[in-house]
Design brief:
The chain has 529 residues and is an alpha+beta fold. The protein binds flavin-adenine dinucleotide.
Length: 529
């Protein structure tokens, strides 16, 4: 019979089994002869005391007993080449996990993706980084794996209860992610590993009879009063074709503005939803380590430290978002003429920089100048800020920036600290470029963060414009139990772009939920019986 115990372990002893057994005996009061096989099932860092340490939850088997490994999910997948087809628009986490789930449920997914596969996509990213050229179909948001591929690869979510979190992690491991993600309290993959994981997932989909069509963009649709009837798709080489399917899962992400406009043109009901906007702030990582761990040079096994900050300013939330310890700031625009930044990291998280989005909840009063855009007022607001940042620059992806202390004092910086942002930064009056309601709250917010985290408010940090794609400003409504659009039952809004997820894992779980809803609906149709 296995016991489960929580123990503290010094960072240097993290991978030392003898030290772990000693800790179980000393801290758990176990008799040495009673400790059989051990396995760590949960791992977190406690940095509250003077010396950071790991907290491990460990299962201990009785001598002679062993733990049985879980059966791989992939073994349960069958062949679906002859099954009813379900079109999935978007090969991000929502679309890919929906596809795997559909296969498990005996349906054939056809993923339509405007971008390129992970290999080809690298070239597009190089063009953005080095020449400031943004391909509207292949960039940090669009392409195989969606916005999650060249990202920070953080896998935690606040919506654990919204789906099968453990299954999603297990599937990532079965496709090549490191098994540590199954036990870490804050699991993370990293952009050097994610492309391979994503490509393996695509191979699974294809091997079981599904399809993934890259360089295919949904440009129109056909509907009648009752339902959606077909998609119109344009290929990279200029051809167009129609695709009819049993169901249509729209998993196009928060940056597919053309899809919102397309749905609107066809009278598909959508609604405005809350979102946030701000800047990305980059500190030297050793400074954050010193604040969080009391160590400028981290001891062995301690990962780059992170932070999470939140405050209220003038009745609105100001908060850090998508923190990337040991990460890089990247240009995440999806069209020429705009500046959008985001953060990513490699699995070792060993860059000398720490960055995080720092954003303010956008409210109706910010959107008043854009009221003529109706439900798209939020989109117009986002776009206006992104374009203002671009216009302030030199026509490349160099981003406007300010030292953090100058930012709060409304001063133009003479020069800027070193940065991880490859296209480069230029000093700019962000206090003038940002909408007043956003700037004044950020101004007070960062000072308050400095009070909460001594050392945070420093001239050595860069404030970079603009962090505008935090979530979708539009929601595509759906029924709570069938996941169908209320007026078009074969349209299944899914993932972040539809307003039901905020991050890789929550999008993945939403994809799984939607796939199950599709399968239930197909099973209930008379022809399926
Ligand atoms: P997306 O991933 O946006 O995928 C949508 C897909 O639809 C895209 O591939 C797009 O090309 C395709 N598409 C759009 N329009 C069309 C069309 N007309 N026809 C065909 N295809 C179309 N989240 C985390 O949880 N952790 C992180 O560490 C993290 N870091 C990030 C770093 C960066 C740089 C970025 C940009 C995002 C990051 N995110 C992170 C957010 C995360 O990537 C998204 O929340 C997640 O990818 C949303 O998944 P999705 O499947 O709903 O949509």
């Amino acid at each position: 019979m296995a016991k489960s115990l929580e123990i503290k372990v010094a960072p240097a002893d993290l991978h030392n089994e003898a030290a772990l057994r000693q800790a179980l005996i000393r801290q758990g009061g176990l008799a040495p002869a009673s400790v059989g096989e051990v396995r760590v099932v949960r791992r977190s860092i406690d940095a509250r005391s003077s010396r950071p340490h790991f907290l491990l939850r460990v299962d201990v088997a009785a001598p002679g007993e062993t733990f049985t490994p879980e059966a791989p999910y992939l073994e349960s997948l069958g062949e679906v080449a002859e099954a009813p087809a379900v079109a999935i628009i978007g090969c991000g986490p929502a679309g890919m996990f929906a596809a795997l789930e559909l296969i498990e449920l005996g349906l054939r997914p056809i993923i339509i993706e405007r971008g390129k596969d992970v290999q080809e996509r690298r070239r597009s990213l190089r063009a953005i980084q080095q020449f400031g050229e943004v391909d509207p179909n292949s960039n940090y948001c669009f392409g195989e794996g969606g916005a999650g591929t060249y990202s920070d690869g953080k896998l935690y979510t606040r919506s654990l209860k919204r789906g099968n979190y453990q299954k999603a992690l297990q599937l990532l491991v079965e496709h090549g992610a490191q098994p540590d993600i199954l036990i870490d309290a804050h699991p993370h993959i990293g952009s050097n590993k994610l492309p391979k994981v994503v490509a393996n997932m695509r191979e699974t989909i294809v091997a079981h009879g599904g399809e993934v069509r890259f360089g295919h963009r949904v440009i129109d649709l056909e509907r009648d009063a009752q339902d959606l009837r077909a998609l119109v798709i344009a290929t990279e080489n200029g051809e167009t074709y129609r695709l009819s399917a049993t169901a249509y899962i729209f998993a196009t992400g928060h940056s597919a503005r053309d899809i919102y406009h397309l749905l609107h043109r066809h009278g598909v009901r959508m609604e405005a939803k809350p979102f946030a906007l701000g800047v990305r702030i980059e500190h030297p990582q050793p400074l954050i380590d010193e604040i969080q761990y009391g160590q400028r040079e981290r001891e062995e096994n301690l990962p780059a430290s992170s932070y999470k900050l939140v405050t209220q300013v003038q009745e609105r939330g100001v908060f850090s978002f998508c923190m990337c310890p040991g990460g890089l700031v990247v240009p995440a625009a999806t069209a020429p003429g705009e500046i959008v930044v985001n953060g990513m990291s490699l699995s070792r998280r060993d860059s000398p920089y720490a960055n995080s989005g720092t954003v303010v909840a956008v409210e109706m009063e910010d959107l008043l100048p854009y009221a003529s855009h109706g439900i798209f007022a939020g989109l117009a607001f986002q776009q206006a800020v992104e374009q203002a940042m671009f216009v302030a620059g030199d026509g490349t992806q160099r981003a406007p920036a300010s030292r953090l202390t100058d930012f709060a004092r409304q001063k133009l910086s003479h020069d800027l600290p070193a940065t991880s942002y490859i296209p480069g930064l230029f000093p700019a009056p962000l206090h003038e470029l940002l909408p007043a309601g956003i700037y004044t709250r950020l101004q007070e917010g960062v000072k308050d963060f400095g009070r909460k985290m001594r050392g945070y408010f420093t001239a050595e940090a860069n404030v970079i414009g603009t962090e505008s794609r935090t979530s979708s400003p539009v929601r595509i409504p759906r029924d709570r139990s069938t996941y169908q659009h209320p007026e078009l039952p074969s349209l299944y809004p899914c993932g972040e772009g539809a307003g039901y997820a905020g991050g890789i894992l929550s999008a993945a779980m939403d994809g799984q939920n939607v796939a199950r809803a599709v399968a239930a609906s197909v099973a209930a149709q008379p022809s399926a019986k």
